[in-house]
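User: Run a structure prediction on this.
Assistant: Running it now.
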Amino acid sequence: PPRGHQTLKKEVKDQVVTYLRSKMNQAASIQAARQVICQEMDALKEIAEKKIRQEGYDYPVTVSLTVSISL
């Protein structure tokens, strides 16, 4: 994708992270943090969709939580 798309992805990520930071104050454990994220999935999608539309694009948005374990 063009460089502008990478900038848009970073801007979307920054907005999502900012939103989640305010919610994570309540999370005392990894499990609690996962629960907060799951509860906020619709809001996260809306944040991403709004930013993408503001920039003049109509990209589809999917939100998911994955768990990765490294040993």
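Residues 45 and 63 are 6 Å apart (CA to CA).
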